[in-house]
Every structure is written in structure tokens, then in C-alpha cells.
């Protein structure tokens, strides 16, 4: 697998620009060259300076993007800890390991490598799952790393849109709620989920799987808690999940319905890439290596069945 360090690339480009300037005699009337847009290639790993964020671009025919934004442990001194009272700083323990294991299991079962994005910096210092204005970073370096994270995520989802035409982005998280079940987030509100199927069917347009709902033969409420809903497929694998056929409503329990990345890279605002935020529990899913080894292939199997049922992909895998 080829490796390209974006920082090195930037240095090379700067060197090239400097070289060009000297050839032109360095006159004051020169126009500044626009920064080139990176042409992402499949089967290539991209990293920011110091490997703080890494994008492992998978196979060209991958319909799947996986991201682990909140399990970073790096503590760069030029990115101070966020101290704003609204800044959530808790780490999502072991989600990078879970994400890599899910990606490997998908590859083993389908022969297709998903695109994988990892943030290695502490969430306390850089927060990818909030709008930049609400990340409350303490430095421009953190802002810049946020921009690079999102450039990578856009690059990965654009790769899917361009080469497959439709796809699924799964944002991987961990919660500390009392009920040990995966919270499957589509941006759909708790009150909508707690309502009737008839009312829920009118809420597809404001969900992160809106595009999927326009191509699927299933009603939106079926996509949320019917036989082939993502939560149902997880529960069929033995991974408790809400909403699902087995556990259709969050009721009054804690439940996350998806954050900034699910909103930005899903299909609520257009496009053919849908998004789901998976909030996983600790004690039954990821807190030990053996739990993660058991859980990750189940998530992969649910993803594959979801792609078969709703996208017509991975048939026969
Ligand atoms: Zn998280």
C-alpha cells in the first residue's frame, strides 16, 4: 500500500512554487498559485503532519466509509485542552480498534476494503464531530487539523459517490449510558422515534438516510425498525440495538441520534451517500479485547446484509 504524507506533499509543492518563482525572476507582479486539490487515489494511505489524522483509502469499488473520531490519545502541546463549558471531552474507548476490526471483517467476507478515517489526537484537544464554531478549539493548529479531517472525510465520501454512485458512511462512537445497546442514529429525534409508524413515515426527509429511503421499497419506519432495519440486523447477530424490531423506541432512556459528521456527510442535505452514527456500549461490546474480537464481525455481517438488502451490493457474500 502506498503511503503519502500530506505534509511532505505540501513541502514539495512549496518547493516547486519557490522554484517556479526563481525561474520567473521573483517579480512582484506574480500571481499566487492556488493550492491544488488533492486527487485521492484508492488503496493509498494519507496522513496529516505527525500522523495525527489518517485516511486509509480502500478499494475503488468500496461503498463504505468508516470513521473513528473520538478515540485519539495524542496530546500535541500546540493544541491545548478545550476548556469551554460546552466542550465534551470524553474519549470513546477502543473505537479505533473496533473500527479497524470491522473494516478487516468486511474485507475478509467481501474482498472489498472499506475506506477508513482515524483521528489519533485527543478529543479534548480536537473535536471533529462538531461544527468548527462549536468545537471550542484553543489553537489554530487544532482548527487546521479539523479542516484536514473533514477534507479526508469529504475525499472518502466523494470517492464512493464517484465510483459506486451510492454508499454508506458509518461514524463509530461509544456511549456510557445505562442500557447496554447500540444506539443507531439517523438524526431522527427521540420524539419521532417514540411516535407511531404512520407519523415516522413522514420524517424521512430530515434523516441521514434520506437518499436510501427514496430508493428502498421499504417505508421509512420499516428502515428504522422493520425486518431489515440496521438495528434489527445488529440484534439478529446478537448485538442489542435501538431502534430495531426487537427494541423499537428509546422511550425515556438516553439515546444519541447522530452528530455533525452524520449530518454533514449523510443524505439529509442531498447526495447519494447515507450516514448512520453507531454509539456502542462498553461493558457488552468493546471494553475487552475478546469483546471487540466478538463484536466487530457481527457489525460487519450486519453492514453486509444491509448493503445486500438496500443497495443491491455484496450479493452472494
Ligand atoms: Zn463519540
Automatic annotation (TrEMBL):
Residues 1-20 form the signal peptide. The keyword rRNA processing does not apply. Keywords: Signal. The keyword Ribosomal protein does not apply. Gene3D superfamilies: Zn-dependent exopeptidases (3.40.630.40). Residues 22-43 are annotated as: Disordered. This is N-formylglutamate amidohydrolase. It comes from Pedobacter helvus.
Amino acid at each position: 500500500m502506498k503511503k503519502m504524507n500530506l505534509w511532505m506533499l505540501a513541502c514539495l509543492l512549496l518547493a516547486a512554487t519557490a522554484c517556479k518563482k526563481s525561474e520567473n525572476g521573483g517579480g512582484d507582479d506574480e500571481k499566487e498559485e492556488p493550492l491544488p486539490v488533492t486527487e485521492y487515489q484508492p488503496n493509498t494511505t494519507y496522513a496529516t503532519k505527525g500522523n495525527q489524522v489518517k485516511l486509509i483509502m480502500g478499494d475503488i469499488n468500496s461503498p463504505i466509509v468508516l470513521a473513528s473520531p473520538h478515540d485519539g490519545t495524542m496530546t500535541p502541546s500546540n493544541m491545548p485542552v478545550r476548556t469551554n463549558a460546552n466542550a465534551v471531552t470524553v474519549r470513546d474507548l477502543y473505537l479505533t480498534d473496533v473500527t479497524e476490526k470491522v473494516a478487516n471483517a468486511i474485507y475478509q467476507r467481501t474482498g472489498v476494503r472499506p475506506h477508513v478515517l482515524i483521528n489519533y489526537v485527543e478529543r479534548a484537544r480536537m473535536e471533529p464531530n462538531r461544527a468548527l464554531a462549536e468545537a471550542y478549539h484553543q489553537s489554530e493548529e487544532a482548527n487546521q487539523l479539523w479542516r484536514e479531517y473533514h477534507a479526508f472525510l469529504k475525499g472518502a465520501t466523494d470517492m464512493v459517490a464517484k465510483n459506486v454512485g451510492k454508499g454508506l458512511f458509518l461514524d463509530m462512537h461509544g456511549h456510557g449510558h445505562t442500557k447496554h445497546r447500540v444506539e443507531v442514529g439517523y438524526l431522527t429525534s427521540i420524539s419521532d422515534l417514540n411516535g407511531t409508524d404512520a407519523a415516522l413515515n413522514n420524517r424521512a426527509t430530515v434523516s441521514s438516510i434520506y437518499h436510501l429511503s427514496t430508493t428502498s421499497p421499504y417505508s421509512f419506519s420499516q428502515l428504522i425498525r422493520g425486518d431489515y432495519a440496521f438495528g434489527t440486523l445488529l440484534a439478529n447477530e446478537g448485538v442489542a440495538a435501538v431502534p430495531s424490531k426487537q427494541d423499537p423506541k428509546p422511550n425515556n432512556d438516553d439515546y444519541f441520534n447522530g452528530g455533525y459528521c452524520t449530518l454533514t456527510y449523510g443524505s439529509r442535505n442531498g447526495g447519494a451517500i447515507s450516514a448512520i452514527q453507531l454509539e456502542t456500549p462498553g461493558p457488552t461490546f468493546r471494553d475487552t479485547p475478546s469483546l471487540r474480537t466478538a463484536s466487530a464481525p457481527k457489525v460487519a455481517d450486519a453492514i453486509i446484509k444491509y448493503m445486500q438488502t438496500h443497495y443491491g451490493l455484496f450479493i452472494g457474500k
